[in-house]
Amino acid sequence: MPSTTAKTESTGFSAAEHAAIKQRAAELRAEGKQGAKKADGLQAVLDAIAKMDPEDRLIAERVHVAVAENAPGLTPKTWYGMPAYANAEGKVVFCFKNAGKFGTRYSTIEFQEAARLDDGEIWPVSYALKEWSPVVAKKVEELVKAAVS
Fold first, then answer.
1. Fewer C-beta within 10 Å: the chain N or C terminus?
2. What is the pTM for the complete model shown?
């Protein structure tokens, strides 16, 4: 039976997923450094948004503004290379997953356990965003406010 090495063995992750994992590892190392500041997290989010395809960038910028206006207590940071927003304890409340990063047909905002969206025994935690509109803006604002309430 031929032996396999780590280099030839398939992990089941795509190249984009491997890149995201590496980005997250770098983020965790950076968070451990003393003196990490909110400004660094904000700059990382703005840099991540700037690298997106134009369609994704437009939506991500609007989501970022909605968070800044409706949940100023959340701290911007990157999470697996994606724009994310954390609570005072440093736990990610939600992130913006852009379509171009993983080759999907729509971007999403994905809420994590720290979000306070609980509604009975079942509730959505991920929302698809194909384009920005006043209706989408209102829904995102409502979700962000609810997540931090």
1. N
2. 0.77
